[in-house]
Design a protein that fits this description.
The structure holds three protein chains of three kinds. Chain A has four helices and no strands. Chain A is mainly α. Chain B has one domain.
Chain lengths: 80, 255, 237
């Protein structure tokens, strides 16, 4: 795989961007939804910091895992 | 009927509060736009990134039709990773309520087990189909934009058939929920059974007449506008769904 | 009239449960279930309200059989479990509306009952909060409101006084007495013998899944104090 950074300059961004844009926007939306939810539930769920890392580092999968599993892993009920 | 709609509303409200509608829709939209993009621009993308050695692209390959791309979206994205995430998203629908005691408490109210089961089945089916429908219509418009016209009515019919398959998948999860305690194992069992039916349905069309995944064969022939459209494929999934529902009613162990 | 005939329920994988239990309660009865933990009080209660299907026997309430017509049977009872399980994401008000809509009760009557119960249990502001923020006592009060709202003919309470504050306890005792005088059957389990002595006219003592004492309070108290009888019948081995 060619990992030389200079290759990015040769990319025809104007041709690719309109196509990749919808996907980028959707990824970003999913990320934002997960982050907003994490922020709102930061006091309720277990290990919010670990979930923050999972959401940020794992592309798409991270937010999905958090939204399915993470947000339900609540700390024990304080009242009972 | 009245109780079903009351409990169904609870299910939908819960999904709204859990922002499930938002993220599941986003997820299916993402899947829906990925496939057409791959089909159309793989070549362009690879070329722009300086050409990866070892990957050969046949320059004479014909560009796929819109309906072929849509089919690939459903069979390659929605029915694979999409189905897995979808099942995981509702695998706890009954198990969580059973373990927390909410279910037992509901059954001390004048609610029958069939009403409870139906509300879970239709509630989660409705949630899933709203998210899938939005995702697939965005996918449809994107595909049509990239690959040319395809009648939206035909795509809608395809989606209706696909929704029967999803209803079967939800009913399977409902049945397993009454047999298995842990929501994780309910999810795994449902995913495995769905995949087995999906694979078996691809073997031949006579066999798939007797499988719930047969409705996908019907959906496919509707989408590709072939001439062997056979509505008998509808029978098997409906029978399987009824078996699942009445099985769940028998196993839920309630007066 | 509530009649329980020969019901048995043995949990799978253990020999715990209840066997061959019979009981009859008439209109206006307030009956207490007492017994050690695991004696079968909760199992019996859960069998009557329809959470645990029992292995054999039958339960009828005013001629309606639980197994033959569960929906009608359940519409006549009000039940409070030992640990209230509610929808955490709802407000108390939304929950009460949901429960009320499951019983087909007249809207005017329901609202009147609701206003009265909310006031008496000082729940008028808390009802607008999310259930997930409630304490155990608040959840119990919400359950009490939800079960009294539809004027049940049989009230079944599993450990109702645990976690209730003194005001709510007093209200509940008064409510039990006044409803019983209107012909409602009330059945509850407890560990507190003093309250049972004051409130009940019938007493059932459980021991190892069987009913060892089933008599009116008057009869029992003629023989000895409640405390003595309880110790006597539950320590025979």
């Amino acid at each position: 795989m060619n990992t030389d950074i200079s290759v990015l300059y040769d990319v025809d961004w104007s041709a690719i961007l309109p196509l990749v844009l919808p996907i980028l926007i959707l990824h970003l939306l999913l990320l934002v939804v997960a982050l907003i939810d994490l922020y709102r539930r930061r006091d309720m769920i277990n290990h919010p910091i670990i979930w923050l890392i999972v959401i940020l580092l794992l592309n798409t999968v991270g937010p999905i895992i958090y939204l399915i599993i993470g947000r339900r892993m609540l700390k024990n009920d304080r009242h009972s | 009927m009245r109780n079903i709609s009351i409990l169904l509303k609870v299910e939908l409200l819960e999904a709204v509060r859990n922002i499930k509608f938002i993220w599941l829709t986003l997820f299916f939209t993402l899947l829906g736009v990925t496939q057409p993009l791959i089909d159309k621009y793989m070549e362009v993308i690879i070329k722009s990134f300086g050409g990866v050695e070892g990957i050969m692209i046949d320059p004479n390959a014909p560009e796929p039709q819109a309906n072929e791309v849509l089919l690939a979206t459903f069979s390659g994205q929605f029915n694979q990773i999409g189905l897995i995430v979808l099942i995981i998203s509702f695998m706890g629908m009954i198990a969580n309520e059973k373990n927390s005691g909410v279910q037992g408490f509901i059954f001390t109210r004048p609610v029958s087990s069939l009403e409870y089961i139906s509300s879970k089945l239709f509630g989660n089916w409705l949630i899933s189909m709203v998210c899938i429908a939005i995702g697939s219509f965005i996918s449809y418009f994107y595909t049509v934009y990239l690959f040319g016209y395809y009648p939206i009515v035909d795509f809608f019919l395809f989606l209706v058939c696909y929704s029967v398959w999803i209803l079967f998948v939800v009913s399977t999860a409902v049945l397993f929920s009454t047999l298995i305690k842990s929501s994780m194992f309910i999810g795994v069992a449902t995913i495995l059974l769905s995949i087995i039916f999906l694979l078996a349905g691809n073997i031949n069309s006579t066999l798939s007449l007797f499988l719930p995944s047969g409705v996908l064969t019907l959906a496919e022939s509707l989408l590709l506008q072939t001439h062997d459209i056979n509505f008998l494929f509808m029978i098997a999934p409906i029978v399987y769904i009824l078996i699942n529902v009445y099985g769940a009613k028998a196993f839920i162990n309630q007066v | 009239m509530l009649s329980i005939k020969n019901i048995s329920k043995i949990y799978k994988g253990s020999n715990k449960g209840i066997s061959n239990l019979s009981l009859e309660l008439h209109q206006g009865d307030i009956c207490a279930f007492i017994g050690a933990n695991g004696a079968g009080k909760t199992t019996t209660i859960k069998s009557i309200v329809g959470i645990h299907p029992f292995d054999k026997g039958e339960v009828t309430l005013f001629g309606t059989n639980l197994q033959a017509n569960p929906a009608h049977f359940k519409s006549m009872i009000g039940y409070s479990p030992d640990t209230p399980a509610l929808y955490p994401n709802m407000t108390g008000k939304a929950y009460l509306e949901l429960i009320a809509s499951l019983y087909e009760i007249d809207e005017g009557e329901r609202n009147k009952n609701l206003a009265y119960l909310l006031k008496e249990l000082t729940f008028e502001t808390a009802v607008h909060e999310l259930i997930s923020s409630y304490s155990h006592g608040m959840k119990q009060r919400l359950v009490l409101i939800s079960l009294l709202m539809h004027n049940p003919k049989l009230i079944i309470l599993d450990e109702p006084f645990v976690g209730l504050d003194p005001n709510a306890t007093r209200f509940l005792i008064d409510e039990m007495k006044s409803r019983a005088s209107e012909g409602v059957i009330i059945l509850y389990s407890t560990h507190v013998l003093e309250v049972a002595e004051k409130v009940c006219n019938k007493l059932v003592i459980f021991h190892k899944g069987e009913v060892v004492v089933n008599d009116t309070m008057e009869h029992i108290l003629q023989k000895a104090s409640l405390d003595e009888i309880f110790r006597d019948v539950t320590s025979d081995d």
